[in-house]
Amino acid sequence: MAPKDPLATSGLPPLGQNKAASKGQQIEPKFLILVVDDSADNVAMISLFLQQQGYRVLTAGNGEDAIAVATQMMPNLILMDINLPTLDGLGATRRIRENDALRDIPIVAITAFGTEGFQRAAYDVGVSGYLTKPLDLDRMSQLIARLLSPTGSGSLIGPS
After folding, report:
1. Strand partners, 110
2. What are phi and psi of 51, to 5 degrees?
3. Into how many domains does the chain fold?
4. Which DSSP helix (H) or strand (E) runs through 8?
5. Around Cβ 148, how many Cβ atoms within 10 Å?
6. Please, what's the b/e burial string for 72-87 (b: 16 or more CB within 10 A of its CB; e: otherwise)?
7. pTM, rounded to two decimals
8. CA max distance for the chain
9. Averaged pLDDT in 10-residue chunks for the chain of 160 residues
10. Residue 30 belongs to some domain of the structure
């Protein structure tokens, strides 16, 4: 199987073609965000939303690929599904936290599991935030903005 280009997001508009650009305004691409989910629909929805906000987007479909893409591309933030094939999101987060070069990248768990036990397990491996599906995109946007702010002003705890 040929390696997938981590910058390829089929079906999504090219960088710089967002709502503001269609109105004649040009927005410089912001931070680089890695979206990790095994659902193509979720990846497309989240990626399109982030690109419309001006973010650059990378994608991965499992935990092993997430680690490889993060190591190669050094994203500013990772949105990590928990229930993934090959290596789940908790295992991938744990391995990312063990890597000195990746240790400080904020990771937001995105999952259908909203129980306190799952939240505790996610925070125990080092996530910076926790959002439940179906995603509240406004809440996700606020959390990303907080985590990427110069002060990195904390995490947003609890279900969306």
Report:
1. 81, 131
2. -65, -35
3. 1
4. none
5. 15
6. eeebbbbbbbbebeeb
7. 0.79
8. 48
9. 49 43 51 98 97 97 98 98 96 98 97 93 97 96 94 46
10. yes
